[in-house]
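REVIEWER CHECKLIST
Item 1: Sequence provided? yes
Item 2: Single chain? yes
Item 3: Sequence as submitted:
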Amino acid sequence: MAENRVSAIILEGGASKTTIEEDMTAVRKAVVLDNIEKMRETPGIDQVILGTNYADLAAQAETLGAVVDFSLEPFHFGRRVLRIVGERGLTSVLYMGGAAAPLIRREDLAWMAKHLREEEGIAILNNPQSPDMVGFTPASAITLIPPPQSDNELGYALTDLAGLRRVMVPNSPWVSFDLDTPTDLAILSLQRTAGRRTTRALSELSFRPDLERLAKALGRVESMFSVIGSEIALIGRVGPPIWAFLNMNVKVRFRVFSEERGMKALGRQDRGEVVSLVGHFIDREGPEPFFAYLGTICQAALFDSRVLFAHWKKQVSDWDRFQSDLGRFDLIQDPEVREFARAAQAAAIPIILGGHALVSGGLWLLAEDSLAVQGLEANRLMQF
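Item 4: Structure as written out by the authors:
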């Protein structure tokens, strides 16, 4: 069998409505350019295609050797990928969202490219529930499924509907960490392996002082990992890979409240079906009593607040979500979200608010950093 030709597709675009979204977008653009550079240097990846509506990003990507698919038409994820595959006659695809894997290594990319070149009928995923990085061959499998609304749905569609065999990327924070919130940027700012463009964009953020305060709080949480008897609560979409890694590598005791994994990919959020036990406690007692009680059973908490917002059946704006993460509760417009963020900020213990990456790839990065400070090698016997 002849080897397949592997084409990497990165999609990044949108329309920023506020200054904080503009800043987030600037970092995402920098990540895209750094990842294009890595892909262009990775053996086994034949070409990189960028789909975008940002003219400045398109111009910079072309200078790095990427093929640009520029369009100002209304965006639909599945139809865009389908069109790119069909018009360009692609045979194997390695897709990444623009905010996916800002710390991905060349060896991770090479591993995926090798499998796509040498195998047939596979879908490579970085997350079994809601992937934002998907490799698939043959590329024509995209024609066998209804065009998905988002990349989170692509993994299920390719395996369950198109019949491709699921292959999981060897799990690590470098393939599971992505950028969606200011908290993710704070975690990224602590990493020494971020690309040079990404590092520069982080240093130029207008909310840099708030990001630095958040990074210090994350640093305090990280310092607990090596202290026997410390207890940290993890609330939200906590998955098996990070839980297994923590069990093998850190000394802290965790209280894990894992709920609603895959709520986007399964359509539960869109249908208003998300139900949270933690959310029920907050509904009954109020956020301030909840955080007061939480402070009696642990010394810190990482809280994926998006599950709570979905439990409330709210379409929380990016502005309110991001201000909540940064602790700027006085700027939040929704009164219920504002009271929740205020109570978190006033709690007796550090409460870090964020999205899925906070309790998955971001938490994993903090654990890796803690081990490095101690001069310890991570135990990586278990892969998912």
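Item 5: Key structural point noted by reviewer: Residues 19-40 form the longest helix (22 residues).
Item 6: Recommendation: ____
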